[in-house]
Structures are given as structure tokens and as C-alpha cells.
Specification:
mainly alpha
């Protein structure tokens, strides 16, 4: 299938609405787990502190970036459904859950270990904090942010994918 035909199979407005809801739920789950002390990881703060050293502004900027990312990923998920499913098949919660699980595994195993090399305010595993680099590196599977962090991250991404699949497929 050519890229043009693939995009023709994507219902962009339905993907964006489904993505908005799924992103809201995922962000609530991840923020709630941090607020309850189950994890010390805040993806909005980590994203926002790329751009500003001001902690309050970092939270606001990171929240906006995280939400926009959720919307953009909803388009990628819809594209993935169009790629994997035949035109007669509809998106569903379990395939969305698989997509979410894969995305969560990618975040934990590929992006988190790479983060200290990219983030201007994060220390690395080999070199401790400096006056500029004060954030703790996530470590393998983001375990430096708590033992439950990998499970909570995977669970939140799984929920994102399952909700997106259910909503986008029309239940």
C-alpha cells in the first residue's frame, strides 16, 4: 500500500479525539502515581526542563509537550492500525494495548538510557551532579525513579493504547 493510500485510511479527526482522551487518562495515571509516591518520575518535568531551568515553567512547558506528543502518537497509532489491519477490520483495544506496550518498552529501554546524553540539566550514570546538571539520571528501565516506575510506565502506556484502540475502532 502506498503512503498516500495508507493516510487515506486514517480518520484524522477520530484519531485526534481518541488521542486526546487517551492522553488525558495516561497523563492522569502517571501524575497520580507520582503524587501517591509510587514513582518519582515526572515525564512533563523531564521534558520541560530540557527548555528551561525554572522548575515551575518546566512543569507547564513539559505538560504541554507531553500532551502534544500524545496527540501526535495518536496519528501514528491510527497509521499503524491502517498498516496492520485490512480495510474490513476495525481497530480494537487489544491491538492498541500491544502498540502501547511496545511504546512503553521503547521509552524505558531506549529513550530513558539515552536521556542523560541529551538532556542539558541531567547528570549521567558516570559523572555525578554539577551546578548545571542536577537532575538524577533515570537509569536502566528508569529504576532510579523507583522500583515501581517501569510497571507504572508500562501500565499507563498500555492503557493509552487500549483506550485509543477502543475509541478509534468505535468499540
Amino acid at each position: 500500500m502506498s503512503p498516500g493510500n495508507l493516510w487515506a485510511a486514517v480518520d484524522v479527526s477520530r484519531a485526534l479525539v481518541s488521542g486526546l482522551f487517551a492522553t488525558t487518562v495516561m497523563t492522569t495515571l502517571m501524575s497520580g502515581s507520582q503524587g501517591l509516591g509510587l514513582s518519582r518520575m515526572s515525564l512533563p518535568f523531564l521534558l520541560g526542563s530540557f527548555f528551561t531551568p525554572d522548575r515551575n515553567r518546566a512543569n507547564v512547558a513539559g505538560f504541554c509537550i507531553h500532551f502534544v506528543n500524545g496527540w501526535l502518537f495518536s496519528l501514528l497509532y491510527a497509521l499503524g492500525f491502517a498498516l496492520v489491519l485490512s480495510p474490513a477490520e476495525r481497530a480494537n483495544w487489544w491491538l492498541g494495548g500491544i502498540f502501547g506496550l511496545v511504546q512503553g518498552l521503547f521509552v524505558l529501554t531506549a529513550l530513558m538510557p539515552l536521556l542523560p546524553s541529551l538532556h542539558p540539566r541531567m547528570a549521567t550514570e558516570d559523572y555525578g551532579p554539577t551546578p548545571t546538571r542536577q537532575l538524577e539520571p533515570p537509569g536502566f528501565l528508569a529504576l532510579n525513579y523507583g522500583r515501581r516506575t517501569p510497571l507504572l510506565t508500562l501500565g499507563a502506556h498500555l492503557v493509552y493504547g487500549a483506550l485509543f484502540g477502543a475509541l478509534y475502532g468505535g468499540m
